[in-house]
Specification:
Blueprint lengths: L2 H23 L3 E5 L2 E5 L4 H18 L5
Antiparallel strand pairs: 1-2
Helix pairs in contact: 1-2
């Protein structure tokens, strides 16, 4: 693989990992109206997919090609 492609994959992978972890740890949506509290359960499917894609991109960037 080209060195430029590896660098781009590494940068994109790190960004995807950071964004996926950020999505995973942000608090759940909560709305308070007087005594009524509405809490929406957080769906972490998108966070897991983003983290997985980030890991794949980082691994692909670290694979050593033929010289």
């Amino acid at each position: 693989m080209n060195k430029t492609i590896k660098i781009v994959l590494l940068i994109v992978g790190i960004i995807l990992l950071a964004y996926g972890i950020y999505i995973l740890v942000i608090p759940e949506t909560q709305v308070s109206i007087g005594d009524l509290d509405l809490i929406e359960a957080q769906d972490n499917t998108n966070a897991y997919i983003t983290i997985g894609l980030g890991i794949v991109a980082v691994v692909l960037s670290l694979i050593k090609g033929k010289e």
